[in-house]
């Protein structure tokens, strides 16, 4: 089985992007955020038996660097760590497995108000890479193994996201953030369909979050 670790190339992409953003605009902001992480399940079927695969509710934390290109257009480079246990459900039975993910993405931000406004609603959209990790201990027998297996493997997948929120100026150059994002990927291979079974659908990770940032 593959080891669970954050690959160095993901860190390189993140810090290289930070450097580019900082050079591209003398006016930028740096911040941190935290929030919930809930998923919409995907389906799994085997003959007349059906169930769902997905993740239990968890949490996300991360950091970001944003830049302003005009009063109403900006960009943001973000890293997010999420902790969500894998789950497989059918009828009244459920199997679970420890899991986490790392996400690096860049979004364009469209603001409804200029940079001098104290309240700036915005919409955002973009994409990046999400690195899923099954981090539990595999057992010789797993509940619902005739539908799928929850595995200790890793997979990096393209992701797209969209959402919106509001920035509120607090004091000086400090700002508070309230937002909601939807991160979309296909189902990773950490969910392995059993022989004759089929997994269908896509994953939506819904993330309401709060944050704080400082403008420079």
Description:
By secondary structure, the protein is mainly beta. The chain has a single domain, classed as Beta Barrel (Porin). It has one helix at residues 8-24, and strands at residues 28-40, 42-46, 49-55, 58-68, 73-83, 86-90, 93-97, 99-111, 119-134, 148-150, 154-171, 174-186, 191-193, 198-200, 202-215. The strands form three sheets. The chain has an eight-stranded antiparallel barrel with strand order 1-4-5-8-9-11-12-15. It has a five-stranded antiparallel beta sheet with strand order 7-6-3-2-14, with no helix packed on it. The longest helix is centred in the first third of the chain and has 17 residues, at 8-24.
What would the keywords be for this entry?
disordered N terminus; 5-stranded antiparallel sheet; 8-stranded antiparallel barrel; elongated; 65% strand; 1 helix; 216 residues; Porin; mainly beta
Task: Kindly summarize this structure in a few lines.
The chain is mainly β and 216 residues long.
């Amino acid at each position: 089985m593959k080891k669970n670790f954050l690959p160095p190339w993901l860190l390189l992409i993140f810090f290289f992007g930070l450097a580019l953003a900082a050079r591209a605009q003398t006016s930028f902001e740096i911040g941190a955020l935290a929030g919930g992480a809930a998923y919409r399940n995907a389906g799994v079927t085997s003959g007349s038996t059906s169930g769902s695969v997905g993740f239990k509710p968890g949490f996300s934390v991360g950091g970001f660097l944003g830049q302003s290109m005009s009063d109403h257009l900006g960009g943001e480079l973000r890293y997010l760590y999420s902790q969500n246990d894998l789950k497989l459900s059918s009828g009244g039975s459920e199997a679970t497995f420890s899991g986490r993910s790392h996400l690096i993405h860049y979004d364009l931000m469209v603001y409804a108000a200029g940079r001098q406004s104290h309240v700036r609603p915005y919409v955002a959209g973009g994409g990046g890479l999400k690195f899923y990790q099954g981090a539990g201990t595999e057992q010789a027998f797993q509940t619902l193994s005739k539908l799928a297996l929850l595995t200790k493997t890793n997979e990096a997948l393209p992701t797209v996201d969209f959402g919106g929120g509001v920035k509120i100026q607090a004091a000086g150059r400090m700002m508070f953030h309230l937002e909601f994002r939807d991160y979309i990927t296909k189902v990773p291979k950490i969910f392995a369909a059993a022989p004759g079974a089929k997994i269908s659908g896509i994953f939506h990770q819904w993330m309401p979050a709060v944050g704080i940032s400082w403008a420079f």
